[in-house]
């Protein structure tokens, strides 16, 4: 009795496998990279010689500390995104401050917050430390209309004073030279300059001077250097500048208690700097060096000079270049490390299969070539077999050689040369496009950057679309990716064609695109070189094909009447469909208009073209089949009402056929507003919105079914589907807001689907689609139990073991990309935002993989034992039979 | 090649004008009667136009008039004339070259009559001409409105929808449209069913609770407690006498 029960326990425990990772699996299949963004302020920790800390504040509202030896992150503070969290200034003196609306002090060792002080409203102008007798005790903050002094130890305000005439005078700088006074500098444009000296003790105005000069900094011992923008002249030594450029002065003050250095920079043009020195008399200026435009100045440069032990000057330089790379250089011009901070702002990405190895390619090539007689074919086959044998022997030798080495030394460095597809196609090339216009090729297994390519002249408001035109599957032809770069304002676009494995620009010349591009579509049509055809529609509805060889044009002419595409003008609420004509012009065939007075289109999503659906229907409890409505041309259009009143606001979901323009379904979610996140796949749409009445986030799922009979089971055509599908919908409460959403994708679509939900906390939730099923019954019946439907519960659970990134949070998740692998059970996931996180998910567990700790010895010994037992028993049986026959 | 469509064009213009004239009159009368009868939910009519050309350049002409009736119960009806001889021939030719049969209706609002004139533009839909011919002009036209009663889309399908290349008997089959007309308003997406769920939970709770009846401690063990109490009382009533006896003894 006890034996069967224990067997059952084992049996069930196999099913109830843990979904989360085990401790020893951490970092085995996943990696995370943390970034901070483009540096705005940088400071070296100059406190002690051996300090290796580096402090940065970036445009992503992040305050971080780096190890200056390795470039690794010590700690990082991610502030609110957007203007709310903008860091205005970063001052450093033992403690770091960043201020805006708030003044904060941080501990530089641990990154802990010391204190936080709320400042009065008013636009921030400048801030500085105030020192007395070489000790820094206060920090002065200059606002548009007031100056305040705070204690550095606890942030309490010592005094605050209103600035005189603040409506006319623009106060620009605050300065303290280590005395008992704080100087504030104000400018009335084209008129005069005001200097006010405040007493450090009680904020009383000691003296007030006006001066008829503008744009000033402090150089030397309390001396002002001024540039008059009207005459473009420098005070004292007149330097006439011919260019229309407002000269900028740059000076440095190494310690708040001492005077600034008397050498300073005058920037005359975007790349023309003059190093000047204020002479000891305090009135004359001598130019030291003129940096002509040929001496290229990077956008930002932070120099830290120090005295070495032998009294020679040493320096360290932190360089922020235009492509958002952060480079740290030490004395003899040695690059210590480089951080690719462009990856903090990934816009779009694709995963491309790696190419085959040389030997595999050789075999492939054999099949690819045309047959030229029996004998050469045999020879070719033999030669390729020899090559294969060679490669195998080399592999064995390498294994043997490495086995003798100590374990730690054997480390497979991934380089671009050794890249090859693995057995299950789990390792891929991640092609990432960043907002700065820099492209990266990253190995998905290790996360190492294998190639990078900076596209110059990319506008900051450019929109990118990455298209894989040819995969690695067509061997002698290299894979080909095309990046469509479109200026958001003008709509003018350009193409960048490159090899996604090596990052090299292709020699294929992209077509010139003189007109703004409205739409791009990748056709399943391939040219003679196996590249898919990309169609670009311009604002006159003319179509440009790329590649546009004769072969392609001929194919397009033949297929023209069956090539349909749609255009969406969200500003006019207009959706329209077009058909291609034989002469590559187009005709408008349908039009749907959603009046913009009522609702505006916020998002449109089709299905992913590489998605496979394995089963056509669902078997119900009564053994009948409910067929799915699998329309590959279906578009999900989400609208939001223009009326923002919580009672009248709504979110509209339209399912429109992209070929015929037929509205398949039209649903309105009342008392709801965005931001709406949604996923459209297979026969379902899942969307998430904010319920204004109940003040909570809700998930809704729509599923489309054809019914119990298929209209035309062999092929789906949008032109021949007269009956509307049945639409089922259910809504659930979700206990958290979300930032992004995507569905898992596998090779053949057999594996059940999960939704990957990026939460603001940085966690990525893998939510089984089973929970989002509109057929979840309210009342459990025999049939629903048979179908394994979960009874309806209004609240969607969040279980912590569903977090696929355990404690590796991804800050500010912007997008999740999923790609199938060679294993049906496995889906590759990349989450990007400020950080990049790559992992694998197994929505239906690893049903096609043996576990790591699979007992090969046991199974083989059992097999052998059984084999020998059969042999022996057979022999015994024979002997017995023989004996019986003799008897 | 080019001369053929041109001659057709000339032929087809005349009947179009005629139909247009007829339908404008129809529209006018429709409005007048509607205004006279009921001011709130008055019906009004909009033209339904169609286009089918061999060279696929849209030239819309009148097919019929849609009688729309807004308000709480939106309803729609269609009055349309028969296809002329020329139209029938053109349609068959268009079907032969796999051309498209397009229809369009102007953008109107079913509820708000003021904005009707302000909106310009049309809503267009199409169906393959061959399927229209093969289905003997039996089509289903659906009008979609949004929450505030604006027409946002129109769709046309034929039943059956396939083009099998079957020959169509002439004249009788292609004379009159056999149109099914529907108007679809957006459905309200469901809210989370919390009330029902809680109700169901309560019922389940009750069901589970019934056999045990969740009696209170006292209700369950009253007899024991009572028995115990009686026993205690009995013993305590015996004790004082004993105690008293002791006291007396000391």
Automatic annotation (TrEMBL), chain A:
Subcellular location: Endoplasmic reticulum membrane
GO biological process per UniProt: protein folding in endoplasmic reticulum
Main location: endoplasmic reticulum
Signal peptide extent: 1-20
InterPro entries: Beta-prop_EMC1_1st, EMC1, EMC1_C, Quinoprotein_ADH-like_sf
Highest taxon listed in the record's lineage: Eukaryota
Start and end residues of each EMC1 first beta-propeller domain: 20-292
UniProtKB keywords: Disulfide bond, Endoplasmic reticulum, Glycoprotein, Membrane, Signal, Transmembrane, Transmembrane helix
Cellular component, GO, one term: EMC complex
UniProt domain ER membrane protein complex subunit 1 C-terminal: residue ranges: 681-886
UniProt membrane topology term: Single-pass type I membrane protein
Family in the record: Belongs to the EMC1 family.
Known partners and oligomeric status: Component of the ER membrane protein complex (EMC).
Protein's UniProt name: ER membrane protein complex subunit 1
From TrEMBL, chain B:
Annotated compartments: Endoplasmic reticulum membrane
Signal peptide start and end residues: 1-29
Bilayer topology term: Single-pass type I membrane protein
Gene Ontology cellular-component terms listed: EMC complex
Record keywords, A-Z: Endoplasmic reticulum, Membrane, Signal, Transmembrane, Transmembrane helix
Pfam families, sorted: ECM10
UniProt name for this protein: ER membrane protein complex subunit 10
């Amino acid at each position: 009795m006890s034996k069967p029960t224990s067997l059952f326990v084992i049996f069930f425990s196999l099913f109830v496998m843990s979904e989360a990772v085990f401790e020893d699996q951490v970092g085995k299949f996943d990696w995370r990279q943390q970034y901070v963004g483009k540096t705005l302020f940088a400071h070296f920790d100059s406190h002690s010689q051996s300090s290796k800390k580096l402090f940065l504040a970036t445009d992503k509202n992040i305050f971080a500390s780096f190890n200056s030896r390795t470039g690794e992150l010590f700690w990082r503070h991610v502030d609110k995104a957007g203007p709310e969290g903008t860091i205005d200034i970063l001052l450093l003196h033992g403690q770091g401050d960043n201020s805006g609306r708030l003044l904060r002090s941080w501990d530089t060792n641990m990154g802990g917050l010391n204190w936080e002080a709320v400042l009065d409203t008013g636009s921030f102008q400048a801030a500085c430390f105030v020192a007395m007798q070489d000790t820094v005790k206060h920090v002065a903050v200059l606002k548009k209309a007031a100056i305040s002094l705070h204690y550095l130890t606890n942030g309490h305000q010592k005094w605050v004073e209103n600035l005189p005439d603040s409506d006319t005078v623009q106060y620009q700088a605050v300065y303290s030279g280590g005395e008992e006074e704080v100087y504030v500098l104000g400018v009335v444009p084209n008129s005069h300059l005001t200097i006010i000296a405040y007493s450090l003790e009680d904020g009383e105005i000691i003296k007030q001077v006006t001066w008829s000069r503008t744009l000033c900094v402090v150089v030397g011992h309390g001396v002002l250097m001024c540039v008059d923008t009207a005459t473009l002249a420098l005070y004292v030594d007149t330097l006439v500048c011919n260019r229309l450029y407002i000269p900028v002065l740059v000076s440095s003050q190494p310690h708040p208690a001492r005077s600034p250095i008397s050498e300073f920079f005058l920037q005359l043009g975007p790349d023309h700097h003059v190093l000047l020195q204020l002479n000891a008399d305090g009135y004359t200026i001598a130019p030291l060096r003129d940096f002509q435009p040929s001496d290229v100045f990077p956008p930002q440069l932070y120099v830290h000079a120090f005295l070495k032990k032998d009294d020679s000057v040493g320096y360290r330089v932190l360089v922020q270049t235009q492509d958002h790379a952060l480079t740290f250089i030490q004395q003899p011009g040695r690059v210590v490390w480089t951080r690719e901070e462009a990856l903090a702002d990934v816009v779009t990405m694709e995963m491309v299969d790696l190419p085959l190895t040389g030997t595999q390619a050789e075999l492939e090539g054999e099949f690819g070539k045309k047959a030229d007689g029996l004998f050469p074919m045999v020879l070719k086959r033999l030669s390729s077999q020899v090559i294969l044998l060679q490669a195998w022997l080399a592999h064995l030798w390498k294994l043997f050689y490495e086995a003798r080495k100590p374990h730690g030394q054997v480390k497979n460095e991934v380089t671009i040369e050794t890249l090859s597809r693995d057995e299950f196609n789990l390792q891929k090339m991640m092609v990432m496009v960043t907002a700065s216009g820099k492209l990266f090729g990253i190995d998905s297994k290790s996360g190492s950057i294998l190639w990078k390519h900076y596209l110059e002249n990319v506008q900051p408001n450019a929109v990118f679309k990455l298209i894989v035109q040819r995969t690695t599957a067509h061997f002698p032809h290299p894979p080909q990716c095309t990046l469509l770069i479109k200026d958001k304002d003008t709509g003018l676009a350009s193409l960048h064609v490159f090899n996604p494995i090596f990052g090299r620009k292709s020699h294929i010349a992209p077509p010139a695109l003189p007109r703004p591009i409205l739409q791009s579509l990748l056709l399943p049509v391939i040219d003679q070189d196996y590249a898919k055809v990309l169609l670009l529609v311009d604002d006159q509805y003319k179509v440009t094909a790329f590649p546009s060889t004769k072969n392609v044009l001929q194919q397009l002419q033949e297929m023209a009447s069956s090539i349909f595409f749609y255009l969406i003008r969200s500003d006019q609420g207009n959706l329209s469909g077009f058909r291609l004509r034989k002469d590559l012009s187009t005709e408008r065939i349908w039009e749907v208009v959603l009046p913009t007075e009522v609702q505006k289109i916020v998002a449109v999503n089709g299905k992913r073209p590489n998605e496979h659906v394995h089963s056509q229907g669902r078997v119900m409890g009564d053994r009948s089949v409910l067929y799915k409505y699998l329309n590959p041309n279906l578009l999900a259009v989400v609208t939001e009402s223009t009326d923002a009143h919580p009672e009248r606001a709504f979110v509209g979901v339209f399912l429109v056929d992209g070929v015929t323009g037929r509205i398949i379904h039209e649903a309105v979610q009342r008392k709801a507003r965005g931001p709406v996140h949604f996923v459209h796949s297979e026969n379902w749409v899942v969307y998430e919105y904010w319920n204004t009445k109940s003040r909570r986030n809700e998930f809704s799922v729509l599923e489309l079914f054809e019914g119990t009979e298929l209209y035309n089971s062999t092929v789906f055509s949008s032109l021949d589907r007269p009956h509307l599908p049945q639409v089922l919908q259910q809504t659930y409460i979700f206990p958290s807001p979300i930032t992004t959403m995507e569905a898992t994708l596998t090779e053949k679509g057999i594996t059940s689907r999960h939704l990957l939900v990026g939460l603001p906390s940085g966690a990525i939730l893998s939510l089984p689609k089973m929970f989002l099923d509109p057929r979840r019954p309210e009342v459990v019946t025999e049939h629903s139990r048979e179908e394994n439907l979960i009874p309806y519960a209004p609240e969607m659970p969040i279980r912590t073991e569903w977090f696929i990134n355990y404690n590796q949070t991804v800050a500010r998740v912007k997008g999740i990309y999923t790609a199938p692998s060679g294993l049906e059970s496995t889906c590759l996931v990349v989450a990007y935002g400020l950080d990049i996180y790559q992992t694998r998910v197994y929505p239906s567990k690893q049903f096609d993989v043996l576990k790591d700790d699979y007992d090969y010895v046991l199974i083989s010994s059992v097999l052998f034992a059984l084999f020998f037992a059969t042999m022996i028993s057979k022999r015994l049986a024979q002997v017995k039979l023989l004996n019986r026959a003799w008897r | 090649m080019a001369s053929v469509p041109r001659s057709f064009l000339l032929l087809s213009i005349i009947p179009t004008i005629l139909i247009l004239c007829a339908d404008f009159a129809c529209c006018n009368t429709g409005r007048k009667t509607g205004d006279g009868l009921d001011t709130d939910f008055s019906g009004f009519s909009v033209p339904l136009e169609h286009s089918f050309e061999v060279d696929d350049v849209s030239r819309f002409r009148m097919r019929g008039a849609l009688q729309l009736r807004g308000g709480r119960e939106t309803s729609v009806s269609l009055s349309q004339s028969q296809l002329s001889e020329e139209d029938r021939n053109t349609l068959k030719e268009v079907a032969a070259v796999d051309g498209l049969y397009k229809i369009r209706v102007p953008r109107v609002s079913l509820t708000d009559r003021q904005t009707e004139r302000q909106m310009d533009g049309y809503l267009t839909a199409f169906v393959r001409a061959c399927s229209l011919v093969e289905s003997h002009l039996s089509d289903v036209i659906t009008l979609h409105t949004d929450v505030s009663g604006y027409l946002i889309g129109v769709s046309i399908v034929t039943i059956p929808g396939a083009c099998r290349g079957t020959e169509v008997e002439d004249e009788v089959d292609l004379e009159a449209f056999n149109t099914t007309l529907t108007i679809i308003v957006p459905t309200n997406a469901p809210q989370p069913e919390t009330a029902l769920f809680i109700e169901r939970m309560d019922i389940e709770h009750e069901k589970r609770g019934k056999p045990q009846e969740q009696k209170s401690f006292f209700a369950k063990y009253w007899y024991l407690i009572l028995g115990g109490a009686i026993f205690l009382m009995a013993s305590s009533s015996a004790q004082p006498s004993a105690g008293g006896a002791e006291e007396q003894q000391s």
